[in-house]
Specification:
It holds the Pfam family Pkinase. About 25% of the residues lie in helices and about 15% in strands. The protein is of the alpha+beta class. The chain folds into 2 domains: about 170 residues, no CATH class; about 220 residues, Transferase(Phosphotransferase), domain 1 (Orthogonal Bundle).
Length: about 450
């Protein structure tokens, strides 16, 4: 259950960290302002599709002792806006992400295109580069990442030096907005929770489909030498199915390139990135931090194109075990951790690799289990490269799809087909549907 909202005045010189590290009261004020923002289309769209003109309104936020947007994270707030016609029917929709990166990240040249601070944010640059690489390799395969449709609202923190003391004070909260396509069926984390509650393992065809999509993304990232750094079950979104292939299941999309970066010499040697927003339950060995010492957990490792491969292996393992995050990676107070000898610990020699790969009620193929185990090797040199992984997935998957790669192309899929994902996957904000959205007071 979300916490109650208690807005407090913003103090730019105090509230200069990233969104996830702000005071709760400051977060609540930023949320209230965001949900009442007068929508404007992005100033910079590149080659992405143009949003429709017209009246744009935010969907009604969830309410529990204060308003709550669709999502909040380490860097900002996410909510859905819809364009409404005169008959209150939805004409267009877009996800807007209000990013508050904090002063430290704002002032980093590698957070912006060509090092131009206040220009195009890195999340837009790298995410769309991966999209373009996917489209170049196979038209239509950009569907496996969320496309950034533009950015705007860049607000400089406006530092000012006080002459008497020499101290720097900040006049604004650093911010910008990113616009993304809307994925109507939520994320993989919620899908896993629904499947777990139903006590029904995912069909192996769905797992191979997701494996192939993420392997394609790994190859596309490798083409531009990108490490994602934050591949989690919450950052894989689910969108409308492809009527030509795997029609029975929604398309998985890799999202949130906010922590991504180019693997240059500094990133490879881990001289940068320790302060990036990475979910601790999903970090590979070479990106796992020692929170006590604010350093890397294991010295001597390097970031490579195989770092993304480990992360993908972990996502597939979560699907096979029906766990939104693996219990052995949880070490926080709100979820009691396992004893140390049952944790995944890269700093302890015999605890560096995941032992259990599937749920006790599942019986997945040997080929799937072997490939996932190869991805999850502690030593990066023992993992497949992105191209090797994609070739292996495509070579091994065909005997385990149950015919669902082509099922339903010319016929309607029964609503109660047991291989479907659990839950009511309904697009409640579909273009063309009526709505009663109103401006919030």
């Amino acid at each position: 259950m979300p916490r109650a909202r208690h807005p407090a005045p913003l103090i730019p010189n105090l509230d200069r960290r990233s969104y996830g590290s702000l005071r709760n009261g400051a977060k609540d004020t930023l949320v209230n302002r965001f949900l009442r923002w007068t929508f404007s289309r992005p100033d910079h769209t590149g080659t992405a599709r143009q949003l429709r003109t017209g009246q744009w309104l935010p969907i009604q936020p969830h309410y529990w002792r204060g308003e709550h947007p669709l999502g909040e994270g380490g860097m900002g707030i996410v909510h859905l806006w819809c364009c409404i016609d005169d008959n209150n029917r939805i004409r267009d929709r877009v996800i807007v992400k209000q990013v508050h990166p904090g002063v430290k990240t704002w002032e980093r040249k590698d957070a912006w295109r060509n090092g131009e601070i206040g220009g195009e944010p890195r999340e837009s640059v790298l995410g769309n580069e991966v999209y373009d690489n996917l489209e170049s390799s196979a038209p239509g395969h950009g569907k496996f990442v969320t496309q950034c449709l533009g950015y705007s609202g860049v607000q400089d923190p406006n530092p000012e030096q006080i002459a008497a003391t020499g101290n720097i004070v900040y006049r604004n909260i650093a911010a910008y907005k990113l616009y993304f396509e809307y994925c109507e069926f939520g994320d993989l984390r919620d899908a896993i929770i629904r499947q777990k509650e139903a006590r029904e393992p995912f069909h192996e065809g769905f797992i191979w489909m997701t494996f192939e999509a993420l392997a394609e993304c790994a190859v596309a990232m490798d083409q531009s030498n990108i490490v994602h750094s934050d591949i989690t079950t919450s950052n894989i979104l689910l969108s409308k199915s492809d009527p030509e292939r795997f029609k029975i299941w929604p398309v998985p999309k890799l999202a949130d390139f906010g922590s991504s970066r180019i693997i240059d010499g500094a990133a490879r040697r881990r001289l940068t990135g320790n302060d990036e927003a990475m979910h601790p339950y999903f970090t590979p060995p070479e990106l796992t931090r020692d929170s006590a010492n604010f350093s890397w957990a294991v010295p001597g490792l390097q970031v490579t194109n195989k770092t993304n491969v480990w992360s993908i292996g972990l996502i597939i393992c979560c699907l096979m075990r029906m766990e939104p995050e693996l219990p052995e990676t949880v070490r926080t107070e709100n979820q009691p951790p396992r004893p140390v000898d049952r944790q995944l610990r890269f700093d302890i020699f015999n605890q560096r690799e995941i032992r259990k790969l599937q749920h006790s009620s599942a019986d997945y193929s040997v080929e799937l289990r072997k490939l996932v185990r190869a991805c999850l090797k502690y030593d990066p040199t023992q993992r497949p490269s992105p191209s090797q992984l994609l070739k292996a997935v495509r070579r091994l998957m065909h005997d385990h799809l149950g015919g669902f790669d082509s099922y339903g192309r010319v016929t309607r899929i029964p609503w109660n087909k047991k291989e479907r994902l659990r839950g009511n996957l309904k697009d409640i904000w579909a273009v063309g549907t009526g709505t009663n959205i109103r401006l919030r007071p």
